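ok new one. same drill as before - structure tokens go in, u give me an amino acid for every spot. 450 of them this time. try not to just spam alanines like last time pls lmao
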């Protein structure tokens, strides 16, 4: 029976996807589990696997084309099977395809909207970064796509030494390419990517500032301009920001925090456990979660005819992606986790967010978000609320500056925090009290140990 390769639905906000690259060509023999095509969704890039065997008889959507979710991309069938009816149709997927007609969409769903997989636990830190652990094994077999296995063999790499970023820790093509580019000692440790939110004062080993995607240099000659089509992610960002900024009545409150004791906490923790590499941002994430427990009115969202107050703190953190764009991975139950757990999870999520390899339950469902531009030297800014959340915290750089204490001027360590609030949910006094509590926790971080 013919197998349809469909454009999968990668997230609740996805309405269309782009074909990035066909990994097989017409006439190739396909086995179940082979990766057939790589697509770009509004959140991640993903490989689509075949859910049946046969020959790739027909590719209907060429590289670079954007099509709606459910569009027929290709047909896999026996060499002599009649596929004329499929190819002649409109290519749309039925509203509820029967199991027999399952396609690569089902495989993709394991890493997209339908997945319940848990990401691999973070591995050891190397050079200021923390990676996903090597892919889990089942009966001694490392989980990897057929293409990744082939590439690793050709490059002379051991699959067990490669960190997998696919569904359930599965090794995919990009993991092999990334591993091949690493020095041998880092590859053995499974180094992936780093956390992109440290302060400039984090000291040696801090994650470097992410490099913006390359664009043609400005020149006095040549064309006046060039147009670059919007990526799927940029389209969603544009839509979501308009949905947030236009109808949501924002207001902003800024507070300055003494970070001296938070610095001492961070340095002491890193001295006791050099592999931890605790950042200021990790401390702020934990402190925000603790403050939200005391001020549940801020851990809420506007629902039209009601206000929803969340009993758990699912902390979103804004991360810039390779090639441009922004995604907000989520640390679930952040208030119930230790600083070490938050630090490890934040680094691992940020690394995979940057390469667009997050699973759906890792970037949806946040109840409050934090955006940190301190690493870029920005001392203060206002962030746009991530709907339907009621608030987002913008974190500036931790900087040394002269401060007045008990009538004398001395060197201080300060950080400016700006809270953006949805005035339909949060009142000014409520937001101010939340910031006061957050300030008290950061200035007395021993509270976080209890």
């Amino acid at each position: 029976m013919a197998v349809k390769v469909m454009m999968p639905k990668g997230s609740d906000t996805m309405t269309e996807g782009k074909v990035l690259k066909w990994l097989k060509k017409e006439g190739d023999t396909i086995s179940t589990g082979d990766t057939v095509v790589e697509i770009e969704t509004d959140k991640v890039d993903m490989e689509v696997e075949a859910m049946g065997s046969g020959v790739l008889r027909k590719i209907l959507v060429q590289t670079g084309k954007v099509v709606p979710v459910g569009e027929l991309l290709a047909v896999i069938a026996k060499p002599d099977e009649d596929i004329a009816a499929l190819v002649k149709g409109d290519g749309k997927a039925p509203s509820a395809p029967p199991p027999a007609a399952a396609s690569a969409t089902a495989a993709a769903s394991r890493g997209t909207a339908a997945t319940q997989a848990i990401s691999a636990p973070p591995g050891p830190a190397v050079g200021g970064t923390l990676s996903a652990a090597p892919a889990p094994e089942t009966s001694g077999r490392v989980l990897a796509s057929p293409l990744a296995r082939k590439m690793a063999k050709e490059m002379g790499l051991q699959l067990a030494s490669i960190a997998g970023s696919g569904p359930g820790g599965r090794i995919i093509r990009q993991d092999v390419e990334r591993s091949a580019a690493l020095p041998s000692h880092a590859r053995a440790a499974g180094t992936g990517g780093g956390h992109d939110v440290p302060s400039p004062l984090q000291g040696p080993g801090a994650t470097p500032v992410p490099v913006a995607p390359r664009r043609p240099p400005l020149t006095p000659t040549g064309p006046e301009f060039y147009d670059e089509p919007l990526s799927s992610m940029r389209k969603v960002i544009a839509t979501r920001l308009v949905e947030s900024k236009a109808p949501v009545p924002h207001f902003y409150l800024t507070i300055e925090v003494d970070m001296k004791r938070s610095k001492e906490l961070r340095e002491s923790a890193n001295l006791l456990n050099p592999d931890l590499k605790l950042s200021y941002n990790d401390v702020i994430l934990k402190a925000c979660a603790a403050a939200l427990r005391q001020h549940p009115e801020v851990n809420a969202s506007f629902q039209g005819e009601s206000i929803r107050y969340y009993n758990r703190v699912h902390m979103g953190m804004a991360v810039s992606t390779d090639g441009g764009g922004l995604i907000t991975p989520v640390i679930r139950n952040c208030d119930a986790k230790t600083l070490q757990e938050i630090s490890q999870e934040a680094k691992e999520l940020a690394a995979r967010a940057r390469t667009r390899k997050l699973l759906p339950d890792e970037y949806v469902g946040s109840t409050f978000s934090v955006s940190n531009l301190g690493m870029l030297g920005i001392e203060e800014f206002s962030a746009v609320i991530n709907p339907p959340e009621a608030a987002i915290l913008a974190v500036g750089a931790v900087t040394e500056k002269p401060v007045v204490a008990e009538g004398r001027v001395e060197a201080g360590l300060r950080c400016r925090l700006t809270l953006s609030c949805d005035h339909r949910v949060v009142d000014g006094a409520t937001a101010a009290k939340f910031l006061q509590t957050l300030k008290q926790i950061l200035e007395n971080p021993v509270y976080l140990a209890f």
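The longest strand covers residues 408-422. and btw The chain has three domains: 3-109, 134-189, 232-449.
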